């Protein structure tokens, strides 16, 4: 198996050095940038496996950089930041981040989170096409398509829709959906399942007028092919 390549965009050298040492000791290939511009240029030109992204960068806001990356890639993104406010965590997750780690952090915990985020991404690379012929809805390259029109899902939206589509008519609770996306089941994440499902529905509605994601009141959500 090829060595996973991780990009770190962090302007504090001491923190970057700690991350680089921890990840390289575990066999990962690591590239570090201290500005958003340099990091984004590299990501666009190179196939990488995971991005560790600081929110507060000297030349750009990490949230905005995440949005730019999500325009062309669904690679796992872990935010690294000194901000611990709930609103910042919510914003980070809603714009497409997969995880959120606050400073100061344990290098061993970060390593565990990196490995956790890489697992589903690696699986999807080997199972790149999951077709649902009944509805014309299918996945390819970490996005879903309806009749060849991409939905342009964020990473979290993709994971949630994927869970539903692969088990038609099965009802999943918010907690089960969070677990499938490998997110912790605290109140911040749980309350945002509804907003992610709403976003998925809006994207599906833009390409198909028939509803595919349904609510089972008091239980959760399920997918029904049209």
TrEMBL record:
This is Uncharacterized protein. Residues 125-225 form the OmpR/PhoB-type domain. The modification 4-aspartylphosphate is found at residue 54. Signal peptide: none annotated. InterPro entries: CheY-like_superfamily (IPR011006), OmpR/PhoB-type_DNA-bd (IPR001867), Sig_transdc_resp-reg_C-effctor (IPR016032), Sig_transdc_resp-reg_receiver (IPR001789), WalR-like (IPR039420), WH-like_DNA-bd_sf (IPR036388). It comes from the Bacteria. It comes from Pseudoalteromonas undina. Residues 125-225 bind DNA. Coiled coil: none annotated. Residues 5-118 form the Response regulatory domain. Keywords: DNA-binding, Phosphoprotein.
